[in-house]
Amino acid sequence: MIPEKPERVVSLSPAITETLYMLGLGEKVVGVSAFDVHPIEARKKAILGSYSTTNIEKLRSLKPDVVFVTTGYQRQLALTLSKEFAVYVLELPATIASIIDSVVKVALVMGVEETGRELAKTLYLKISELVNSLKLKVYVEIDLGGAVTFGAYSYITDGLAIMGAENIFGKDECEWRKPDFQRVLQEDPDAIIYEPKMFRKTTKEQVLEMLKKRGWHSVRAIKEGRVCVSPGPYDLIAHHGPSFILEAMPWIKSELTKAHPQSDTQL
Fold it and tell me: Is the overall model pTM greater than 0.90, yes or no?
C-alpha cells in the first residue's frame, strides 16, 4: 500500500522524475532510470536500470514507499515489480492533456495536490501561448536505436496539431511506428523535425547527409532548408514530461515559424 505522503520514491520514468522535481519533491527521490536527465540533478540519484529492466536487489535496498512507472514499454516491468513493491502506474500520454493529467496524478499520490494544480495551471497557460496556425505538413523522426515516427495516439502528433501543423503520419492508428521512407517522399512534407539518439552528438550537417542518402533530395523540406534538428544531447521531443510543453513545443513552434514565417498568426 502506498503511504498517504510517500517519503522514499523511485521513478523509472524520466517524465515522472521531472514532474517530481518540478513539484519540489526531488529530495524524496532515491532511485531513477539510466535515462533520467530532466533535471540533470536526477543523475545524482541511484540508477537502477533502463526503461524495461531494473536491478531488483538495488531496488530492495532503497526500500521505496512507491515506485512510479508508465504503461506501454514498461507494462511488463510494472507487473513484475508490483508483486513485491507498491507500484503506481501512469498512462503513457497520447495527448498534451494527458501530460498535464499525469502531473496532477503524481501530485495526488505524493500528497501535494495544490502544488500539482498550480503546475497544471502553468502548463495550460503555456499551451494557450502556443496555439497557432502554422499550416505545415511535418515529418517527425526520432532515433530510438532506429528510425521511429509517430501516429494518431502520440502526444507529439497532438502537440503539432495544437500549433496548427499536420504530422504526415498523424492519421495512422498507432502511437509510434517504423517510418515508410517512400511515403515520406510521396507526402513531400514542408518541414522535417529530427531528434538524434540520446547522448550522441549529431550535427545538422550529418543529419542532412543521412537524409539525402535515403534519396530524399527532392523532398521540399530538404530542398528549401526546413530541417529542424533538436539541440541534444538529451531528448527533447521524445521526453513526455512537463518540459515537452514548456521547452519542446516552444522550440518546435519557433523552428517551424522560422521555416514558414507567413504562418505565425495566432488563432
Answer: yes
